[in-house]
Every structure is written in structure tokens, then in C-alpha cells.
Please model this.
Amino acid sequence: MMHDFVRIGSYVWPYRRLFVLSVICASIVSAFWALNLSIAFPVVKVLFQNDSLHDYVENEIALLETAIRVDTAALDSIPEDQVKERAKLQYRASERSRNLLMLTKVRRSVLPYVPKDKFDAMALILCVLLAATFLKGLFIYYQEMLVGSVVQLTVNSIRQDCFRSALRLDYQSLNRIGTSALMSRMTNDIEQMTAAIRVFGVTLVREPLKAGACTLLAFYVNWRLTMLAITVVPLLGLVFNLFGKRLRRASHRTMESMARIYECISETFGSARVVIAFSGFRKHRKQFLKANRDYYAGSMKIVRLGALVRPISEIMGVVAVFAALAPGAYLVLRNTDSILGIKLASETMSIAELTTLYALLAGTLDPVRKLSGIFEQVKRGMAGSERVFDLIDERSIVPEPKSPRMMIRHSSMISLQDISFRYEGTEAEENQRPLALKGVSLNVRFGEAIAIVGGNGSGKSTLLSLLPRFMDPHEGRVLIDGVDIRELRTHDLRSQMGLVTQDTLLFNDTIFENIRYGNPSATREMVLDAANQAQAAGFIRQLPNGFDTVIGDKGGKLSGGQRQRIALARAILRDPAILILDEATSAVDSQSEEVIHTVLKEFSKNRTVFIISHVLNRTFLDLVTRIVVMDQGRIVATGTHEELMRSCDAYRALNQPQLIIRDAA
Ligand code: ADP
Ligand code: MG
Model:
């Protein structure tokens, strides 16, 4: 909690000037607030006590002067050795002379402007009140504007950091967190946080200042009674603390269920085609209902706690005022200065003083009420910021090397040495997942085109994911030209690779930009050439806007084969030293696929190529130099097609029927 405050503080720091200005505005506002309330004093004087302000001041001054004279005389008559008595008297005298000083000042600088007529005086007071309220309003406006801009700037940079840190994460961590949770962090949680920082900057700064100003003045009017009222404050703190803990827990849970709502929405509508085809509406409706219900339950808990905070704090506030008011009333109405022998006022209190004290204490109460109202919001925001900062603190499990080695374009050998790999399970899974790769070793010379074949789940995709370091193997290492890839900057490493995966991922942009993603500095000619090689140019030209056609969310306006060809063009444009194709042509029609294979044969010169494919037709076999057969996370055989057909049962079983059909055709 405290830690998160400091974190937010570090984001606010660059805008500290604006913030300080806003605090100054808040101080001015609270000064006006206390001033407006203490106007009760002259009002009561004018309205209920029959002397005018002038008379009152003159009277008081005369009274004080006599009292001080009496005091000094008394002081002289007390013998030197009665120290305690003398000190008491001296204190009283000094208190009186302070009052006297203030009153003479008032007489000199305020009274000349105060009309003698009572109504005129009242009218003047009201005018002052109006002017003060206007000024207070002006500074409230400035404070909120200043805080508003600080908050927006702060939250902007937090959101930016959130996005950047998510981008730096490795593939596995991103998968574990999930897109929906990321979305919920960067929208909902940050929204809660924004609201909290705003009330923090506005209310949490201004209201305590207001309360403070009032308490200060109340102390001045009668510090003993004010002390009585303040005794309730620690109790109030205790109650808030208790509520705070429960609120924060409830907020955490609620925001988790908000993430589940996001998940449900994105899953349902992200797979709209399946949902519609299988009429899965009921299932999704149920899921959504559950997520929604969870959210409701959590929210209601927060609402209940929040609803309780306010009345409780109000009651306690009234108790506090009572603690001061009841004895105060006793003093005034019984015309005394002590209760049960305990001295509670330096002089007998006047009705005007009591009213002012009451007004000021009520003025302390109002900020407390407002503070308790925002309490829930701040707690929610803190819970949100905890989650946001957790994301910002999330570190990639594929770390960058501290002192990276220079990478020169790959030109001799890629070797995988004794590699074992296991996918991280979620915390809910009790047993560890089985190894996805078990002791895999493979040496590939520069210029080879390696086919990797094997049944579903045999570990082909996993093996090739290690090359661009989507994840690191748990045992063993990957060397490129003799250098462990963990010693290379991931950016350098990946800049040498062209990758087309099973699920072709395109952006909602033009075809041209999607291809150029592989090499942002490519010219239009280079893009067209890459599209030609990937057998994509033909269908692209037939589109209404050609290369400038926008292809929809995830390339939704194109067929699967078309998407794959664009993804292939993107990889070709990158001019990679290492080309990785993971079932990259699985959706392309067989004629185009054969053409792509011939093109790739040309393209694969002076590169190392890895191809996962299920279709081993003649053009494909012509393209690859060696075939690696995988089964259950192991490499069971390597060799040419002829060798494997002779020696490897698994290979024969894998592709024979297909080959026969293809050969016949
Ligand atoms: P192939 O590409 O040969 O079909 P994969 O390499 O994708 O197989 O998968 C190998 C094994 O690893 C499978 O048993 C699969 O269940 C598991 N696996 C693949 N991807 C993940 C993942 N992201 N998280 C957990 N397990 C995975
Ligand atoms: Mg695969």
C-alpha cells in the first residue's frame, strides 16, 4: 500500500510544480472556508447581542486593560518565592495582552470600514461572505484543473509503461497472463487508479486542510473544548483501518471477475464463427452470467462497506462535536468557566464564542464526511494500482544478456545440444506437465533446408520456437555459429530470422503494410517482389484496392491460404539468414504450394531453412536437403527421404498413403 503510494509519487514527480500549485490553491480554499465560518462571530454579535461591533471592541479593550492592570498589581503583591502562583498569573496576563493587541489592531484597521448602523453592518458582513465564497470557488476551480492535468499526465505515463513492459515480456508469460487480463489492467484497473489519484489530489489534499484550518481557529476560540472534540479522532482512524482492509480485499476480487468478463467477451466474439456454427449461445450466456454474477457479488460487498463508512463516520463526528458542545453550552448557560471543578474556559464564554466554536467544529466535520465518502474510491484505486504495478514489474523469463556478443550474419552451423523443455504449468495444475522435448540434439549446416515431420504434439513447433527464443530450454543449449543464443541480443538474433507460424497473424492494415512489417525500410518494389515470390501478387492484384486493401481484423477479409501467402511474403521480404516455416502453406491450394516450393528452393540458397510440413510431395522433397522425424518430444531419425523410407517405420507410417496418391496424380 505505502509502497504503491511511493510508486505513484515517482510518476507524479515530473509534474510536481503543478501539484504544488494545486496544494497552494487548496490552502487558500481552506483559509476561506474557515474564515467564512468564523463570520458566525460578528453575525451573532450584531444580531443577538445588543451592542454594535464598535461598542463590543471598545468594551473588550477597556475590560482587558483593567484586567491586565489588576493582574500586574496582583503580580507585584505576590512574594517572589511563590513561583507557581506567579507563573499562573503571568500566563493569564500574557494571554490577555495578546487578545488586547489583536483587538487594538482590529480597532485600527477594520473598524473604520464597519458601519455603525446594525443593518448596514450585517449587509457588509454578507457582502464579505459573498466575496469570500466567490474567491473560494475560483480557487476550487483552479485546484481541480491543476490536479486534473497532473492526473491525466501521470496516468498516461503509467499506461505507457504498462504497455511497454507487457511488450518486453516473453511469449510464455504473455500467454500465461492472457490478453483479457492485459486489457483489464490497461483499461479498467487504470481507470480505477485514475479516479483514486484524482480524489487523492483534490479531496484528500483539500479537505484535511479545511478541517485543519477550522481546528486551528477553534483552538483559538477555546482550546480546551476543542481538545475534547478531538479525542474521538483516533477512534475514527481505527474504524477506517478496519473497513479499509476488507474493502481492498473485496476490490481485488471484483477486478479479477472484471477480467473474467473481458475474457468471456473476447472469447465469445473472437470465435464468433464457431459460436454461431455450433449454436453455443447457451454455454457462453451461462459463462457470462456467472462472470457477471461474480462481479455483482463483489461489487455489492464494496457497495455495502462503502455505504456503511459514511453514516458511521458521521455519527462519530457528531459525537465529537457533542463532546465539545454539551460542556460548552453548560458553561454559557450556567455562566461559569468550569465543570465539576475542571476549568474549561479562560473566561466565561459568550454565546457568540460558543456559536463560533460550534460553526468551526461543524466546519471540521464536513471535510471528515467528505473524506469518508472517497475512502472507498481510494481503496479501489490502490487495489487497481497494485495490479497495474504487478504488470509493470513482471519480468521476462527470456532475459537479455548483460554483455551481449556481436552477431554477424549466420554462415556456418546451427546446433541444438541435448535440449529438454517443459511448458510452465499454471499454478492450479498439480502435476508438472510432461517434457515437450527430451534430449534433442541436431546439427544443421548453413545452407541446409531441414524438413521436420512427426505426428501432432510431437514437439516440432516447440523445437523451432527455441530458435528465436520464444522460450529458453531448461537443459541444453542452442548455438548459432558457435555462439550460445542466450549471449546475443534478442533483437539481433530475431533480425536474422523470418518466421511463418501455423496461425498466420496479420494486422488490420493494408496488405502492403502487412508485408512491409517484415522490413520497415523496404521499398515498394521490394514488397511487390516478395509478394511475387510468395505467389501472393496474383490474388492481391484482383482485389479492388490491390496492395492498399485493408484486410480487416486479423486479416478476416482474406481466406486462410491468402493470409498464409501474405505472411510468407513478409518473411521473404525480411531477407533472413534463417527461415522458419511452421506449416506455413497448410491452407494454400496444392498448385500454389508447389510453385511456392520451387520459389523457396531458389530463395533458400545461402540461407538455413527449417520447414514443418505434413504434405511431403515431390516439390517439397526436392526443396529439402534432410528430413528430421520427431515423435513424443524426441528425434527418432534423420536422413533423406530414400534413407528414411528404407529404415524408419515412423516415417513410412506418417506419409505413405499421401505419397501414393500424389505419385499417382
Ligand atoms: P507439434 O507442433 O509437433 O504438433 P507442439 O510442439 O506444438 O507439437 O507441442 C508439443 C507438446 O507441447 C504437446 O504435447 C502440447 O500439448 C504441448 N504444448 C504446446 N504448446 C503449449 C503451450 N503453449 N503450453 C503448454 N503446453 C504446450
Ligand atoms: Mg505445431
About this structure: The pocket of adenosine-5'-diphosphate (ligand 1) is lined by residues 175, 423, 436, 454, 456-462 (CB under 6 Å).
